[in-house]
Predict the 3D structure of the following.
Amino acid sequence: MVLPVRLLWELAAATGRALDRHLLTPAGRFPFRWLLLPLAWAARTLVWGPLCRAARTLVWLPLGLLGRGLARAVVHLVWGSRSTR
């Protein structure tokens, strides 16, 4: 009685491994390789890249220029007033 049950169990386990190896794993790779990777590339190239360039051009560069201008003004006001005394 034990041997036929064990054989059925091994058959079920082998069938499960074969389904996993030949059906489920390739079916799981398909959406990742053909859907998610191209969407990630498109989002990175067409959305994130232009947003970063726009933020750098419209926000960080003017803030840097403003900061340098304020630093120069402070330097000239503080040390310029000391040198004129």
